[in-house]
Amino acid sequence: MIHVGLLGCGNIGRIIAKGQDNFKITAVYDTAQEKADAFGKEFSAAAHTDFSAFLSEPCDVIVEAASVAAARSHAKAVLEAGKDIIIMSVGALADEEFRADLIETARKNSVKIHIPSGAVLGLDNIKVGQIARVDKILLKTTKSPASLNRPITEKTQLFGGKAHDCVREFPKNTNVAQSLSLAAGRSIDVELWADPAEDRNMHEIFFEGEFGEIYARIRNVPSPDNPATSYLAALSILSLLRNLDSPLVIGA
Description:
10 helices; 2 domains; alpha/beta; Rossmann fold
């Protein structure tokens, strides 16, 4: 049985907790005392608002399911405590210096940083971009103006450029771009569009090279209790947790 510590008691954390199978959430952390206590009581986990106390719990892996700020604030301490971490807010790793520091800390402490597939698919295939010639890798993301809090009445391109620049301009909409960049080993090309006719977040991946051509389109269903969260992204963490101790590794 894998013992899991949950950093963030929001919608994603709840989906993970309801899917416990080969793992058990034994401790939770949130800055809001009421949220931590309620979550801990519902799922029989120790509740903390003090991060040091949370880290002292006997957990094998910590799941960050909170925010980019939380990942930046706490990921290194998790690794220094000798625990693996699953980072949901992958946008935090857009900072090259921060990312390099985390990787070195993980190496020194013989632990791992896990990145879930999130709101897309095919990260395992994108990784061939690190060993083969790539001619094109483009992520085209289309969202409703409402999800971007912008009064846009016609289809509009909001950004075109590299992923690391998109992270700076749209920090709340870059987890997918950053995940793909990490998998490919380079900052990928990104287009961000707002379209009033689109009621779901849509990601299109164009990947071409000496291996052939790949096109994937993902239209994400919002999480049942939080429209701002991709249900697929939450399920990807659950899938990762369920496979951590599996003797059969698929698509690594």
